[in-house]
Amino acid sequence: xxxxxxxxxxxxxxxxxxxxxxxxxxxxxxxxxxxxxxxxxxxxxxxxxxxxxxxxxxxxxxxxxxxxxxxxxxxxxxxxxxxxxxxxxxxxxxxxxxxxxxxxxxxxxxxxxxxxxxxxxxxxxxxxxxxxxxxxxxxxxxxxxxxxxxxxxxxxxxxxxxxxxxxxxxxxxxxxxxxxxxxxxxxxxxxxxxxxxxxxxxxxxxxxxx
Length: 210
Description:
The chain is of the alpha+beta class. It has eight helices and five strands, in the order αββαβαααααββα. The protein has helices spanning 2-26, 58-78, 94-108, 112-125, 133-142, 147-154, 157-173, 196-207, and strands at residues 35-37, 48-53, 83-88, 180-183, 187-189. The N and C termini lie far apart (48 Å).
């Protein structure tokens, strides 16, 4: 009888421990603290991490290394299952719209990896924000692209449609500033100080949510 009672106590204790562990695991990331759920935007591919940013934003410039490291760690684990996208934000500012066009050009001519860091350096360590399309065109000439093709792209309908799409995504996303990370179109990462490892872990968790 005593053995049976001891066994019952052991089983009860085990259930308590397991329940506590489960609660702890579930509470690792808390909605409203680590992230918020928003109406967001429809994403064609999932899982996807989308960064809203501007080359003109000093916070984006300072956070770029952290975000890039976190995404690299996540992609090393998930491989091609994870998509990473960027949406440049203007917020009605002319100089920031030129940076949207810069991102459009980099994507169109497949030089994003090369131009991304150089755009941040140009604006925050060099000549400052772009003021005219001519400056933007000259920057991409220096990246090795033909000026005639750059100017043609800037004058195209595709450029205007891309800018409109960027603006629509920013409006629907629920972001309040940049940089912001949106996972699967509806989980907005809270603005807290994190290491690259911590951020990668949070992004991985959010990418699994329905």
